Each structure stands twice: as structure tokens, then as C-alpha cells.
Amino acid sequence: MATLVEPSFDENILRALCDTDCGVPLLMDRIKQSMVSCREAAAFLKRRAGIEDEYGKAMQKLARQAANEYATSEAKAGSYVNAWQSSMRTHEVMADNRIKFATRLNEMSEELSNLAKEVDKNRKATKDLASRYERALQESESGTEKAKARFDMTAEELERLLLQKEGESLKDNAMQGRSPVNGKRVIGKAVAKGGMLLKGKNPQNLQRQEDDIRARMSTASDAYRKAVTETQTIRQEYFNFQLPRILRALKECVDEIDLGTQYHLARYAFLCESIVHSDAKIISPPDENTPGLKATMESIDNRTDFKTFMQAYIYAHGGMNTRGPRRTGPVDEGFLPPIPAHHHPGNSPSPSHAPISDKGRPTFGVSLAEQMARDDVDVPPIVVKCCEAIEKYGLTTQGVYRIGGTHSKVLKLKERLDRDLDSVNLDAEEWSSDISNVTSVLKLWLRELPDPLFTSSQHADFLDAARNENERARHIRLHERVNALPDPNYSTLKYLMGHLHKVVQHEAQNAMSVQNLAIVFGPTLFGQGQPGLNGQMNGMADASLQNKAVETILEHYADIFVDEGEES
Fold first, then answer.
1. What is the DSSP string of 120-182?
2. What span, in angstroms and rounded, lies between the C-alpha atoms of 254 and 123?
């Protein structure tokens, strides 16, 4: 497992630990705490994985069972069955995502468990090493004390012998033993006892004893000095080298498990966000051409389904009801002629739904420069028309631009705008009551431009500028790229960013921050399916850079587009 320790180790913490007398037990207890936290996180992730796996498999089974049972039942057909089967497929995809999410949680739980085991192994090894060095120092100090005791005992024996040679009396020795001078009281008592034992010895024996004692005293002195030197060496090595190394190893264990646990918890949070966003994209796809769950259910046409069912039923069962009342018959039997059909004038199409004539000035899928040259404008009229309606009715609408409109209504509004833009009244209740249809049409117009607003030729330059990690440098590079856009693209982008700037100012009501708008407009302004830096179609791989580019430009809207003295 790769180490998770930060490359810059905090040397100040290490010095503080070295100065304390409890550095090793302090770090040992901290590692135990961290391991408990790590194992608790691993246990939580494992249990959460079990819940998600059970939920995903249950939903998958339910969706498949519901789809199969409906196919074999006598339920409605037509648009209803298409919507039903499509919704069940949507649930299957969501279930698959939950099962994958559970798999990742299991992997993270296993990694955390392995991390705790590895750190515990390193902790035990370092603890054994610390105990070995401490034991060696304690044994050396004990040996030094024993050597000192042997030396003191030999010195005491020599002193008794010398006093005997000088012929000191027992009384003098006893008096000297009671004297506290030079700390000799205890030694004096021993000398007094020794004096009686040695009394009467001849000088030759005393000399031999003195020589023997002096030789043993010299050996004991050398052994004591050697023991002191060795103990000092071991002590210096322990406190100056071994202890810092042990403390560093233990602190690295603390950092490894703490950072590892934090990394996996942050990854867990990211996966939670991702699964929610994934479900949101499945239920309501950002691509307007792909109907979501709501649009799928709204596509059910009960009237058409009933007409189709009625025609099929009459064709299959017409004329078979011989026991029911007859519709027609002879006049002499009381049957009346059929009442002629009468068409009321009120049944004609209302003026608001009358077909719009095509003025021959399409706006969808037409080059930006061609539109603006044809209409002799600085900003395409459809952009101005849609943005003004959105600012009038949608600035405080929660999720504006993020929530898509009704698929059928979006296509209807697109067709009307493409035939005769000037005749479309976006203030009408049909459009102002659900502004998401207007926002979806505006995004659809941007996506259908033959060349994206951030042109294909400058696609790589924008992504390269967005890749810059320094905020100020990224702002400057993107400002340069914006200034390099063709005039039609620049003026349209300036107007659009000014509009989005107003949307952001109402974030408290609409919950659309700069980041949220960047996620919505990143692929839209760069064009979906544009080739990446390597020439491959990797729009999804570049999505984060596209979003970062739009986010930076929108954040610095005033610096990039608004001149000094000009109102934003």
C-alpha cells in the first residue's frame, strides 16, 4: 500500500515529543485511538455497502419483474406501455448504479481494514524496538551501579587495612566512626570491627593484603569507569538518535492512519454526491433530446391510446353483439332516421394554436455569423428574447437552467421560434408559467450551433488555459482566449454571461451558484463531442476543464467584459 504520509514532516512536533518524558506512550495511545476510528469507519462502510447492495438488487428484481408481468398481462398498450417499459429500464439503470456503489464501498472498507492492520503491525514492531533500547539502557545503568558498589566496597576494605597499619586504637576508630566529618561514620564502624580482626597480624601479611586490595581496587575502578563510559554512550545514542527515530516512526504511523481514514471518508462523500448526481441525470438527463422520467410519463397520450383501442376493438368485435339493442331498422317498426352531424364553429382551432407560417429566417442550426449578418444585430434575437423572458419570470425560480422543460413543449417552442421568431409571445401563460421550457430552448439553440460558442478551433486553447492551477494565471489566460474569439461569438458570449451574472445574483432564491451554472453550460458552450487535446472524442474526460473555464469566466465577468465606467 502506498504511503499516505505528507512529504513535509512537522519537525517542531518531533522536537516537542523528544523533550517530553512520555513521548512514546503518548503516540502509542494516539495510534490506538486512530485505529479504533479507522475500524469504526470501515465497519460503517461495510454496513452501508450491504444496505446499498440489498436495495440495488431488490430494485433491479422489482423493475424486471414489473416489466415482465406487464408484458404478459392484459394492461393498456400504446404510449402507456412504452412509457412503462422505459421507466422500468430507468429503474434498472439506477439499481445497477447502486450495486456498483455498494461494490466501491466494500472496496473502501477492505482498504481501511488493511490500513489498520498495517499500522498496527508497524506500531508493534516500533514498540518492540523501543522496549529493546530502553531495556539495554536500563541494564547498562544497573551494571554501572553494581560496578560502583564493588568499587566502594574495595575502597572501604582498603581504608580499614590502612587504619590497622597505622596502629589506630579501637577507641579512636569508634570515635572516628561517630564523627560525621567527610561522611565516614559508617566506614569508621566497619574499621573498628576490622581493627579487632586484624590486630596482631605481622607487617608482612598486612602488606600483602594491602597490595591485593589495591590491585582489586584498581580493577574495580577501571570496571566502574568503563561501565560509566558505556552507559553514557548508550544514553546519548538513545536520546540523541534512537528515541527521535522511534518517535518519528510512531508519528508517521499516526499520520498514515489519520490521513488514510480522512482520504477514504472524503472519497465516500464524493461517491455519495456522485450517486445522487447520477440518479438525477438518469431521472432528468441534461441532454434535451433524451427524455427523462418525468418527460416519459408526460408522453403518455391517453386520448390517442383510447382512439387506437376503440378502433381495434370495433374492428375485432363490431357486429358481434346480436343481443343488444339495434341502431337502425325499418321505419314502420319505429326506427327514426339518423340525426345528421352538426359542426359547431367553436370547434375550430383557436388563434393561439393556429399554425405559424414559415418566414424563411431559421435560427436553429444556423451559423452565428450568418444569423447576425442576416438580421444586422450584435446579439442574435433569439438570445435576447429568451434571456429577457427568463429574467422577467425565472430569476427566482429554484433550479433555473438546471431543471429541464417538458420535451414536447420544448420541441413545440423550438419549431415556432424557428418559423417566425417575432410572432412568438413568451409573455403568454403557456410559456411564462413554466420558464424551464424557455431555458431548455435557449440551451438547445446553443447546442445546435454548427460551430460552438467557444469555437472548435480554440477548444484546445480554452482547455489548456483552464488547466492552470493558479487562479490569477487561469483568469488571465482565459481572458486572452475570450478576446481572441470572433466578433459574433464574443458579443453573444458577453450578453449571455451578463445574463447568467444576473442569475447568480439571485442565488439565495434560485439555488444556482456559479459552479452549478458552469456544470450546466460547460458542455453546451464548448459543444458536446468535441475532440480533446489528443484528437480523440473525449468530451466527458474534458468536462471538468470545460466547467472550470466557464466558472472562471463567469466569476470574473466584470473584469473580462465590463469596461471602466460601464455598468455591469
1. HHHHHHHHHHHHHHHHHHHHHHHHHHHHHHHHHHHHHHHHHHHHHHTT--HHHHHHHHH--GG
2. 9
Confidence of residue 123 (pLDDT cuts 50, 70, 90): confident
Cell of 80: 402507456
Q: Sorting pLDDT into bands at 50, 70 and 90, what band is 21?
A: confident
The more confident residue out of 317 and 286 is: 286
Q: What is the pLDDT of residues 93-114, one digit of tens each?
A: 999 999 999 999 999 999 999 9
> Which residue bears the cell 466578433?
487
- Whether 364 contacts 445, CB under 8 Å: yes
Interatomic CA distance for residues 393 and 412, integer angstroms: 20
- Asked if residue 283 lies in contact with residue 90, where contact means CB atoms within 8 angstroms, the answer is yes
The SS3 of residue 537 is strand
Please name the residues in contact with 479: beta carbons below 8 A apart, sequence gap of 6 or more: 556, 559, 560
Quote the pTM value. Answer: 0.47
Alpha-carbon distance of 558 to 556, in angstroms, equals 6
Q: Which residue has the cell 540523541?
A: 240
* Residue 172 CA: distances (Å) to CA of 189, 192, 199, 238, 307: 11, 8, 14, 50, 139
pLDDT confidence band for 58 (50 / 70 / 90):
very high
Residue with cell 500500500: 1
Q: State the Cα–Cα distance between residues 78 and 475, nearest whole angstrom.
A: 54
Rounded alpha-carbon distances, angstroms, from residue 1 to 40, 118, 161, 496: 20, 9, 71, 49
Highest mean pLDDT among 181-185, 194-198, 368-372: 368-372
First to last CA, the chain: 53
In degrees and rounded to multiples of 5, residue 396 shows phi and psi of: -105, 10
Q: How far is residue 425's CA from residue 431's CA, in Å, rounded to a whole number? A: 8
Chain CA centroid to CA 240, Å: 42
- 3-state SS string over 376-402? CCCCCHHHHHHHHHHHHHCCCCCCCCC
How far is it, in rounded angstroms, from Cα 6 to Cα 564? 46
